[in-house]
Structure formats: structure tokens, C-alpha cells
Amino acid sequence: MLILASVTRLHVGGLSLAVLLLVEGRTASIADGGLAVALLSVGVAVARIVQGRLVDRVGVAGLPGVAAAHAGSAALVLSAPDALLAPAVLALGLTAPAITVVTRWLWARDVAAERQPFIFGADTALQDGAFVLGPLIAAAVAAATEPGVALVALVVLGCAGGAGLVFVVPKVARPRDRAAPGGLRSVTGVQAAIGGLGVIYGALGVGAVAVALEAGRDSLTGVVTAALFVGGIVGDLVLAPRNPSVPLARRLRARVPVLLAACALVPLAPGVVGVTLAIAVTGAVLANASVTLLLDLAARASAPMRAEGFGWAGATLRLGNAAGAAAAGVLAERVDARAALAVALVGAMLATAVVLARAARLPIRT
């Protein structure tokens, strides 16, 4: 399960960069590329909510149909005229298989609470690994051929993995509970904080590409983007919470101010190398905060709607990503790359405000 999910996540890891390079190449505008990434993120956000609700009810039986629709959407992106490129990219996101929703649903339901910090950290580390290799693959294939070829390769990988989950997940576990309405109100604060993290991911993703392009180092776009997730792997494995006796609310209150400081320092880093290192450090803190929020969500969400809860988590992350990417793209074109990176500070401020205001007042469900 972990191996299949990890390979499939290369699709998610590289898709945003492939779309960004494809649209920027066709329109000669980094702002249009950032908007395309934002539309892709909105589509993925909706897809995770819908597919999360579907998983709560019938497991992963519907994923082959989703994969087929995703392949069709990729064909539309490649063949659409510029006027229809935006809705085609949105459709690509709407049909993306929600691999992460499935894995986290399984871990939250079938893994003992005391082992969840490790398994969620490991799962998120594998996801971050995909976000390291995915952009590198997308950038390398796009440089050797063209962005459209990179897009096709990633979509084929995602479709194959999404359909393949049908043969793996039923052997591991089947849904035991019928989904019921309600049960997610207790995680609204968690979702809002995750949305703030999404703004950081989106802003740093587009801002990192803008830094490389502005410096004339086009070949480093994948490396600078991957730095965020290299740092994330460190955060997932080295900084992951391991002491279950420490309340999650206390962990969150300790982590988000550090994240705020890290995001404030990224635009001030000198040169492409300095920005890359600063983004890697921010990625470590960001991933650590993300894992802690996911554990909080797993503890609070009612069992019959847990997959939908993770779907909403993915949705708010992607919507934040969309806002961050779009704002960063506009600022990169109208101001400079440093202004684009500064958008991440807005997301960190949102996450910090939500956590400090709500974490101490929300009881942990057991």
C-alpha cells in the first residue's frame, strides 16, 4: 500500500510544476502560470472532498472511473486553445485521484493511537519525497522534451496508481461504518489552520520558480521547488511528535510561531542558493506543523466521516495553495520574486492566529 501510494504521489508532486511550465510556455506569462496552478488546486480541493465522502461510503471502488476522467482531462489540457485552457486545467484538478485521502483514512481507522504519530509522519514524509522527485522529474522531462510530455507522463502514473488502489485497499480493510451527516464541526479550526499552511505551500512553490527564472537559472526550477519538500522530510521524520502525553494543542502553540519566523526570513535570504536553503528550513517546520494538525484532526473527527474530514483537510490545503500561488504569480510579474515569497508570511499569520485562538479551547476526542 505504502509503495503504491508513494509512486503514485509522484504524479501529485510534479503536476503543478508541469502545468505551470506548460501554461507559462504557451502564454509567456508567469502570472498566467500561477493562475493555472491556482485553478488546478481548486479542482483538486473539490475532488478530495467528493472522493473523501465516496471513500466513507463505498471504499475505493470508484477510483478507476476517476482515473479515466483524469486521463481525458489531460487530453483536453493539451489540445485546448488558449481561451479554454483555464477550464481544462480546472477539470484536470477535479478528476485527480485522491491518494492521500485514502491512505490517511486507513491510518486513522486501523492504526493504534499510540502509533499514529509515527505512521502519519512516515506517510507525510513519503508524500514530501514525492514532492521532491515529482518536480525534478517534471522539470527534467520538460527541459529534455516539452512541458506537455511531462504532463502526460505524470498523468499516466497517477491514473495507473489510482486504479491500482482498488486491488490493494480491499485486501487491507473495508469500510465498517455507514457515513452519517455531521461530525466535522469540531475540526473547523484545524481546517482553517491547514488552509494557512496551503497559502505557504502555494506562495513558496511559485515564488521559488520565480526566483530561479529571475536569476536566469531555468534548469534549477525543480531543485528550488523540491527544497521545500526535502526540508519537509526532515520535519516529518526528525521533528515528528513522539510523546503522546503532550497535548496536541500545546504542540501546535509551540510550532506555529516558529513557522511564522521562518516564513518571514525566506524573502530576505541572499541569492538563489540562500533562498533554496531558507525554503528547506521552512519546509521542515511546515511539515512538522502539518503532521500535528493531521493528528489533531484524526483525534477529533467522528469515525463515520473521517475520510471526508481528511478530504476537507486536503481541500482547505489546496484552496490555500491556490490563493498563495495566484497572489505569488501576480506579485512575481508586477513586483519581483521576493514579493512573491513574502505571500507565505500571510499564510503563516493565518495559521498562527487560528491555532493560538482555538487550540486551547477545543477538547481532544478519544
Descriptors:
disordered C terminus; 13 helices; Growth Hormone, Chain: A; 0% strand; 366 residues; mainly alpha
Topology:
Blueprint: H1 2-27, H2 30-58, H3 63-79, H4 85-94, H5 99-110, H6 116-144, H7 147-172, H8 188-214, H9 221-237, H10 248-265, H11 271-300, H12 306-334, H13 337-358
Helix pairs in contact: 1-2, 1-6, 1-7, 2-4, 2-12, 3-4, 3-7, 5-6, 5-12, 6-7, 6-9, 6-11, 8-9, 8-11, 8-12, 8-13, 9-11, 10-11, 10-13, 12-13
What does this structure look like?
This protein is mostly helical. It has one domain (about 1-170, about 185-360): Up-down Bundle (Growth Hormone, Chain: A), CATH 1.20.1250. The protein contains 13 helices and no strands. α3 runs antiparallel to α7. The two termini are about 25 Å apart. The model is unreliable at about 170-175, about 175-180 and about 360-365 (pLDDT under 50).
Number of helices: 13
* Content of β-strand: under 5%
Q: How much is the radius of gyration in Å? A: 19 Å
Helix % is: over 70%
Brief digest:
80% of the residues lie in helices and 0% in strands.
